[in-house]
Amino acid sequence: MNGSQAQVGQTVDASNGGQLYITSDGAMGFYQSGDFDDLNDGETRQTTATYQITDGTVFSNTATVTITVAGTGLANTPPNAVATADFTSGIAPLTVNFIGSGSTDDGSIISYNWEFADVGGPSSVTNPVHTFNFPGTYNVVLTVMDDGSPALTDTATITITVSAANQAPTAIIAATPTSGTAPLTVNFDNQGSFDNDGNIVLTNWDFGDGSPGNTGGFPTAVSHTFNTPGTYNVVLTVTDNGSPALSDTATVTINISSIPVSDVNIMQTSLNIVQGNSGVLTATVIPANATNTNIIWSSNNTAVATVDSNGNVTGVGIGTATITAASEENPLITDTLNITVTPNTTFNRITGLYTAPSGSTVLVEITTEAFESITVNLKVHTQSDQTGTELLSLGYVALVPNGDSVLRSDFGQFIMPLNGQVYFYARQVGDGISDLTITNNIGPVQSSFFGPANPVQ
Q1: Are 188 and 173 in contact (CB under 8 A)?
Q2: What is d(CA 97, CA 93) in angstroms, rounded to the nearest whole number?
Q3: pTM score, two decimals?
């Protein structure tokens, strides 16, 4: 059969699939052997075999058998392409994981083809990973093919939208003026700032002098006063509405100079203070618009006088002290004033010591009621032993008739010396009562009785 010797029941391959065999009664049988399983309903295929039958003698006969096989199975159906992705939108560069394994078929899917619609090539991987480097809209197409005969395909499309990454805004700062003397008020604005792919939504100003910053919307104009000389870097920060939000900064330098002090003047020309009392000194700087007009006060002798930061002077002890007013900006620029602290008004009739501010005027009066002829003398000296300068001399002689009385008086004045101390000396001879009255315009009135038995000093 088909050029080969075959025995009864032996199978022989047909020309186009299947197998033939001869039975003992001379009949022919046919096996499909699975070679026609791919035939769909209505499809046919022919296969042939040539055989020769002999009776063992010289006689034989040859014939060709044609077998037509018709398909009776279901027709191949197309596969179902299913394409999904973990991201369908994002910012470039955007990496997307694609999934094609969800596609189905009534047989088997034998190939996957992904077209990404960008500069990258296709992929035959079932679940590929692809990166889109540039903004745009990409229609990604998946094509699947089954194992049917004929093979069939299906496509699925998924759209990927890639946006450009947020670009930072540009900060631009304007300032007027950028230099001057303290205190200097500077006007700032940020209206030149811009954002090419969105909007500026927040601004912040840092003035560089330790003061609280200024935060607001856009655009903004602000003013700030710099009170202290120096160099200040003012920083503007602008922030956009992107996701994530981005910022940019701009800096402008402000130079603040000072108006120097050239001189200091104490307004008073002299000051005399009674011990325990206070006085006020005032001082000014030149020029009046100097940046730093503060004054530092000091005393060279705090045992005599002290001075506070406001120029208040207090007399502590008797004597003189020098008060200095110095510029805080430049302590070498000064003015001075000598002050005198004099004792308070006091009188000791036993020692005769009288104290009062130097230069003050002292009025002295003696009055006597005489009951007989008497002599009254009063002297004022700078020394207790009457060897010093005599400042005042008063006195009189009163002649009194028998059994009568006479009233006599005398008065005078003197100027207290620099040390604020003088000594009174008063005597009375004869029967009578004498009264000494000392008056000073800045102190209490002092008075004392004296007579033959109780003189002054």
Answers
A1: yes
A2: 13
A3: 0.46
